[in-house]
Design brief:
single chain; Nucleotidyltransferase, domain 5; 16 strands; 3 domains; five-stranded mixed β-sheet; Arc Repressor Mutant, subunit A; about 20% strand; about 400 residues; alpha/beta
């Protein structure tokens, strides 16, 4: 569940949110317009009025104000067959920025994200296991460096910092080979408070895979589907759920905790998916084969190691993922399953293809058709999800008004 700590105050639009007074309604309608433009890429005022039900005059006032605030920019005129040419508007990439910190079990990333979801700069730290002291030093230094890289006018448009971190990071000492006492330090750590105090910005926190799922929905190809299951293969596998075109966090913010889903262990029993479809298993296999397992975390472009070891892990992981997808689809009639991960694009392609082959072998009688798709953000998905948190909190409409075209 997303939580706000520290200072608050949107950039560009007024600080008031949805409310009963005129200013509150105006800010709310601005969020509606920004959300609609983000969804469509670029759109003219007349189409905004048609889709929102707002009057043409109201839309004109809102668009004019958002353009003056630096959040929108005009695109080239579009000439139609009848009437005056229309001018579409799009989000200005320099309109706002977010900084995201991803804390993983083998690596950490800090990214600077612009208003349309492009990573402007990034920094990475790899380690055998994460400690609060090391992450605090890395995060503080990296955030300062990214802020210093911006001109003053852009720095004033940084909406905050989002932290994407696994739940109960102290629970996985055995799997990561970390000393339990070192990971226990996370129980009392408060990195959010440290960053809020050090940089005087809003700081948001979210489960890392939930954040990645949100980033795929907003900035990736997830918007193609209304209801989908999201699977992210990192050091430990996790997941997310999108329903009705909106991220579904669940009662405690941990919806889509697929790592806990039971799958066959290949020996007549059952184990959690996390012990069949996680990168720590490949890391161990590479080590047993005499290869350097740390190469999995140093590069996002290529994996180096014995191909038979990697391929064996891909096939085993694909079988487990296919079973998990079918089980989840029996509970919710998902339109698609999207698979992403902290891996090179070529390996992700191989994994998705292997999952497709595994799904074809399973009995899916009674279940609807399901599309299988690749995620589009890869290793940066979790950090991008963190960076998106302040942007989504300040500039998007509430979940219930992420509406669709009423004419469809």
């Amino acid at each position: 569940m997303t939580a706000l700590i520290g200072t608050d105050g949107p950039i560009g639009i007024r600080a008031e949110s949805r409310g009963t007074n005129q200013i509150g309604v105006r800010a709310y309608n601005e969020r509606l317009v920004l959300s609609l433009i983000r969804r469509h890429g670029q759109i003219a005022k007349a189409e905004i009025a048609r889709l929102t039900g707002l009057s043409a005059q109201t839309v004109s006032v809102i668009v004019k104000q958002l353009e003056a605030d630096g959040l929108l920019k005009r695109e080239k005129k579009v000439r139609g067959r009848i009437g005056q040419p229309s001018i579409p508007f799009s989000l200005d990439p320099d309109g706002a920025f977010g900084i995201g910190l991803k804390i993983g079990r083998r690596s950490a990333d800090v990214v600077l994200l612009d208003f349309v979801g492009e990573v402007r700069a990034s920094r990475r730290l790899t380690y055998r296991f994460p400690t609060p002291a090391a992450l605090e030093a890395f995060a503080t230094e990296s955030v300062a460096a990214l802020l210093d890289s911006l001109p003053p006018e852009s720095r004033a448009r940084v909406g905050g910092i989002g932290i994407a971190q696994p739940f109960e990071i102290w629970s996985w000492a055995e799997e990561t080979g970390a000393p339990a006492a070192e990971l226990d330090a996370w129980r009392a750590a408060d990195l959010s408070a440290t960053l809020a105090a050090g940089f005087d910005v809003s700081v948001y926190a979210c489960n890392d895979i939930t954040a990645a799922c949100g980033a795929e929905l907003v900035f990736g190809d997830g918007a193609k589907y209304q209801d989908y299951l999201y699977l992210y293969v990192g050091a430990f596998i996790g997941g997310g759920v999108v329903l009705g075109g909106a991220l579904f966090p669940g009662r405690t913010g941990n919806a889509g905790a697929l790592g806990s889903l039971l799958v066959p262990d290949g020996k007549g029993g059952a184990v959690q998916l996390i012990r069949r479809a996680s990168l720590y298993l490949l890391e161990a296999a590479l080590g047993d084969a005499g290869a350097d397992p740390d190469g999995l975390w140093r590069s996002t472009e290529v994996w180096q190691g014995p191909r038979p070891v990697i391929d064996a892990w891909l096939e085993s992981t694909a079988e487990a993922l296919a079973i998990a997808i079918v089980s989840a689809s029996a509970v919710i009639d998902f339109e698609a399953a999207i698979i992403d991960g902290a891996m090179p694009e070529t390996e992700r392609q191989r994994l998705v293809e292997a999952v497709g082959r595994a799904l074809a072998k399973l009995d899916r009688q009674g279940l609807g058709p399901l599309a299988l798709a690749e995620g589009s953000l890869g290793s940066f998905a979790r950090a991008m999800g963190g960076a998106a948190l302040p942007l989504l909190a300040k500039f998007t409409a509430d979940r219930e008004v992420l509406f669709k075209d009423p004419s469809t």
